[in-house]
């Protein structure tokens, strides 16, 4: 019985540490999203022409790249072409991007990681409450 309770205590410590890590990452993601929204709002307010030009250039480049994948005979930006890197910097500065789609680091694939996350999520559901005023959990 002592071994069993020690194992449960150790498991609870691990879940608590995991919860803290997940919460920190979630808070950082929310902050990144809010900063992007503020940059986008400021850019549209201060320079609507710049924001419109950046959006149209971005759409045009994406349409060209998509057309290349539909028909490989069409041109694609070469590796030494810095247009994609430069436009990315402008889009990020203007808040015209989705920060949640950006990958900063990569790791090896961990076995059973999705299963562990699913079990963790199931274990945390009882702690969540719906707030009607905010419309969020």
Automatic annotation (TrEMBL):
<comment type="similarity">
    <text>Belongs to the strumpellin family.</text>
</comment>
<dbReference type="GO" id="GO:0005768">
    <property type="term" value="C:endosome"/>
</dbReference>
<protein>
    <recommendedName>
        <fullName>WASH complex subunit 5</fullName>
    </recommendedName>
</protein>
<dbReference type="InterPro" id="IPR019393">
    <property type="entry name" value="WASH_strumpellin"/>
</dbReference>
<dbReference type="GO" id="GO:0007032">
    <property type="term" value="P:endosome organization"/>
</dbReference>
<dbReference type="GO" id="GO:0030041">
    <property type="term" value="P:actin filament polymerization"/>
</dbReference>
<dbReference type="GO" id="GO:0140285">
    <property type="term" value="P:endosome fission"/>
</dbReference>
<dbReference type="GO" id="GO:0071203">
    <property type="term" value="C:WASH complex"/>
</dbReference>
<dbReference type="GO" id="GO:0051125">
    <property type="term" value="P:regulation of actin nucleation"/>
</dbReference>
<dbReference type="Pfam" id="PF10266">
    <property type="entry name" value="Strumpellin"/>
</dbReference>
